[in-house]
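Repro:
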Amino acid sequence: MTEHFSVGVVGYGFASQTFHVPLIQSTPGLDLVAVSSSDAGKVQAALPGVEVEAKPQGLFARDDIDLVVIPTPNETHFPLAKAALAAGKHVVLDKPFTVSVSEARQLKAQAEGNELLLSVFHNRRWDSDFMTLRGLLADGTLGRVVNFESRFDRFRPEVRDRWREQPKPGGGIWYDLGPHLLDQARELFGMPRAIFLDLANRRDNAKTDDDFLALLDYDSLRVSLKASALVAEPTPRFAVHGTRGSYVKFGLDPQEDRLKAGESPAPQWGEDTRHGSLTLRDGEDEESPLVSQEHPTLPGDYLAYYQGILDALRGDATNPVETEGALATMVLLEAGLDSYRQGRWVKLKEGSPSKRIG
């Protein structure tokens, strides 16, 4: 059994610098050996001892690289992953999987045909609040959930000159934050029967969508997913209501901000001091009063993803984000766009990948 695996990262932009490189370097057994970048000086200044390849193909051709990580603009995921898999490399893609279901299916088939690991970095499965909510639903604390609202709001009124805000495949807030919210909802409740999506360009000079509302249709459950670049007042990250009570949580998981600040993962690093509110009856009688109390938030753990990748490469565990689940999220992303273009609910085909907690 191989104890260590060598890693190459494609590009050294925001996602590489903020998420992937720090997490890889904090995972014993994964050795970052090379990065592809047109700015060798920038990489070498930040990562002494890590080699630099001018082009991604240089990484793919290296015999000393086992795993290629691709945190690049969304529309490049498919061609880069296809080339890496063809070179015999295991692959981690940043979310979303690709920009279309057909591309995702091609990569899935290619990886399976060559017995290679292919995974998608859906890191927010390891958010503190999501892990806490998953536990509440698994325990049945809220009873049967009837209303689930998940929001990911920011206040960024100025349109910036970056690829995410350009009108190109994979651009816009739906393909940026939509994968997070859709993947979390699908992990909790499985695939919905249908989806309705409303997109909007709210900011001055916006070139692509910066606001969305997505509704997912389940039996006796309403799921509402929202994101906007023009929300200054804090809104609940989660508001979940069931037959036994409610759970409301404000504030985003702190791990991204800590990574942005240059902190390295360490004990207690994923702790969130902003706890949620749990409201339940104080007794089983209908006349029992409702009591609200602070509900402790579990620590988040982004390191669990790359530890899971290492364990999967060693053959000790399954892929931490299976391609089937990542593909299901792509189905929802694409069906959402169909809904917006047609102005109606779009039904999901029967037989779509499904699971449900609680």
